[in-house]
Amino acid sequence: MAAPETVISIRGLRNQFGTQVVHDGLDLDIYRGEILGVVGGSGTGKSVLLRTIAGLNRPREGSVTVLGEDVLTPPGPEDTGALWGVMFQDGALFSSLTVRENVEVPMRTVDGLDPDLRRALADLKISMVGLPYLAGDKYPSELSGGMRKRAGLARALALDPQIVFLDEPTAGLDPIGAAEFDTLIRDLSRALGLTVFLVTHDLDTLHAVCDRIAVLAEKKVLVTGTMDEMLKVDHPWVHEYFNGPRARAALATKAAQTGPDGA
Amino acid sequence: MTDQTRPDIDISATEPEVVVTLRGPVTLHQATALDADLGALPADRAVRVDLSGVTRFDTAAAWVLTTHQTRLDAAGQRLEITGAGTGPASLLRTVSDAVPDPTEEPPDRFNLMDDLAELGEAVAGGLRFLGALIGYFGLFLARLGRAIIRPREFSLTSLAHHCEEVGFRAVPIVSVMAFLIGVVLAFQGATQLRQFGAEVFVVDLIAISILRELGILLTSIIVAGRTASSFTAAIGSMKMREEIDAMKSLGLDPAMLLFVPRILALVITLPILGMIANLMGLTGGLLMAWIELGISPAMFSTRLLDGTDISHALVGMVKAPVFALIIGVVGCYSGMQVKSNAESLGRMTSAAVVTAIFAVILADALFSVFFAQIGV
Questions:
Q1: Would you call A112 and B32 a contact, using CB atoms and an 8 Å cutoff?
Q2: What is the CATH architecture assignment of B8-100?
Q3: Does CATH place domain A6-262 in 3.40.50.1820?
Q4: Which of B33, B63, B106 sits opposite A124 (nearest CB)?
Q5: Handedness of CA A64, A66, A69, A74 (dihedral sign)
Q6: ipTM of this complex prediction, to 2 decimal places
Q7: Which pLDDT tens digit goes with each residue over A23-39?
Q8: Is A207 at the interface with chain B, CB within 8 A?
Q9: Closest Cβ–Cβ partner in A112, A120, A132 for B5
Q10: Residue ranges per structural domain of chain A
């Protein structure tokens, strides 16, 4: 197998708020087309890491390179909308705009794009994330939590970015909605060739979606690898996380799904 | 490349089929021009689009190709796409699966009936709003009665806290406002009355206008701005965070715990604030009359006691509890109308202030008519 292309490379990252050090000497590589799941206990700086790569948070030290461009040296990459999209935890949709207008917002920066075409493309994106056509006319406050997340994803995908950052995509969803969202992420990532950086607590998502998992602990990326490799890691927190009762349940579900034809 | 928005496109309209060759990046940036180019193709023969030279391809381009494919299909022709790599091919598949069905478009025609219905809805909404306000007033009275029968359910601490919040803390602003109003009245009255040599009547002017109208009205307006908004914001944010629901589920009565202390605090403190405003207004007038007209404080007070009947002060004070009820009920009601988003909190807060001030002025006008009729 050829060596995978690195799209995001983080070296020696240090994040600090006041006297509290969140990251210290953090290194991480993310490869093209993969879905990377980032896990870690509360307060280990998963969201801070996401925000740092997406350029929303300036680290004290270290370098972040996305597709060969340094994100941290001003002025940063020119067209971030085409590079990456971010889906925030509750969608972070603009509340005074309809869903369609929300998805159109990033496209407004494109020169010479016909308004009718823009509208049609927004409808396409809304449909691609599995929302009904009529949802486009609704305001964010009229949508359920799951629909808001989908709309947030549609906005993140508006400019066909190469990388998508997802912050807790399945938090607050019922199991059926969460499973649907997992499938959506996986299908879109395969179809569009997306690289996905995903922060989650949901073990089912890790099982169902992620190609690789990175564990944040002790202020750095403690270990990365596939799910199977995680089960063998000999670190108390990692062991507890991936071998706890909930993890076993998630594993059992996965085995039951793939069992009949896998065996 | 000279123009970023033009795709690198070759169209050769040969006889059996039109061959469209695309090269380089075909993305959102080129989509508008690509759409126009494909739209200009003749619909009477088949089209073959060659993507083998395309370096970048995104959903926008895939959408344009898919829609033209559908358009040509409808015209009995076909659009064939060749040379698509695995990435573009999967994109085309995904997009053609996801193209939304525009037949679901909701009808949005407006006609006269809709306008009429809207007008009727607005009128009915206004009446419902009035009814709801009266309902909240009734709720307050009922809970107040209950608090009198069963004082244990009523929290005196909360009442004291709100009295401090809406009454005591409003004293400085109300005093300064009333003092300045007194000064302005004396100054303006003096300039006008001096023309007739009737400077001394400035005392009557100040006394009657402040005691009867301005003292309590302006105090109420300031309190409406200060307190109605804070009631709405406090109760509204509790509603937003489901605290009100939590109270109900714990068997606590929000009306008893939230409305009664707040409205009662207003009913108690607004007359006191009005009294302070009256005093400060008279003080301002006295000072200005002394400086500007040379009416000494002794003369001012003699004139005040001789020329002004106590009924003026009473007429003013009678209005205070009514204004307090209006402000309190509007503030609490608006707070309970807040929905689960921050936007409605802001909207209801400003609506509460506007409604409270308007209602206070309306009530004041009704009082004026009433007192004129009974001749007080």
A1: yes
A2: 2-Layer Sandwich (3.30)
A3: no
A4: B63
A5: negative
A6: 0.77
A7: 888 888 999 889 999 98
A8: no
A9: A112
A10: 6-262
